[in-house]
Amino acid sequence: MKKARILLGLLAVFLASCTQANTSGSDESLPSLITLSCNPDFTYEPCQDVQFDEGAEVRVIMDAIENAELIPGNLNYAAQYKMSITNTDRSVTKYDFSIGTDPEMNALLVDGIDTTTGYSILLEDSNQLRSLIERRTN
């Protein structure tokens, strides 16, 4: 009888863990819009404004931001884009964003308020973002 109770308890725990809602990666927490506006002072490469409002594209961008690595020290950079992330509560988060066209270069993301806080976007993520931008601008 004791073994049956243990098995029943383990089964209950297993079933409870299988039915728990998975909220990580939920589209409800994704921003509703991400806008890249060309910086008129950045004239090194052609630029076109672009907006992302499709869930899959927004997820790719947000994953790249979440995976980015903090860059220590003072930053010397030229922003190609001004990035605006419109959150579900309608608040807007702003960044300076430089990505370029070189597939061997990491993109740079800098906090729009604290421009001494920058992040290097991983190369694989940078290339995914380049592809997204290219699809929307061609």
Give structural notes.
The chain is 33% helix and 25% strand. It contains three helices and seven strands. The chain has a seven-stranded antiparallel beta sheet with strand order 2-1-4-5-6-7-3, with helices on one face. A hairpin with a 6-residue loop joins strand 6 (107-111) and strand 7.
Category from helices, strands and their pairing:
alpha+beta
Could you tell me the number of beta strands?
7
**Secondary-structure element series:** HEEHEEEEEH
- Terminal CA distance reads 69 Å
What percentage of amino acids are in beta strands?
Answer: 15-25%
Q: Major sheet: order of its strands?
A: 2-1-4-5-6-7-3
Question: How many helix segments?
Answer: 3
Rg (C-alpha, Å) = 21 Å
Detail the poorly predicted runs.
1-24
Measured as a percent range, the helix fraction is: 25-40%
Chain-averaged pLDDT: 83
Short note summarizing the structure:
By secondary structure, the chain is α+β, with helices and mostly antiparallel strands.
List the helices and strands and how they pair.
Blueprint: H1 2-19, E1 33-38, E2 50-52, H2 55-67, E3 69-71, E4 81-86, E5 92-98, E6 107-111, E7 118-121, H3 123-137
Relevant terms:
138 residues; alpha+beta; seven-stranded antiparallel β-sheet; 3 helices; 33% helix; 25% strand; globular; disordered N terminus
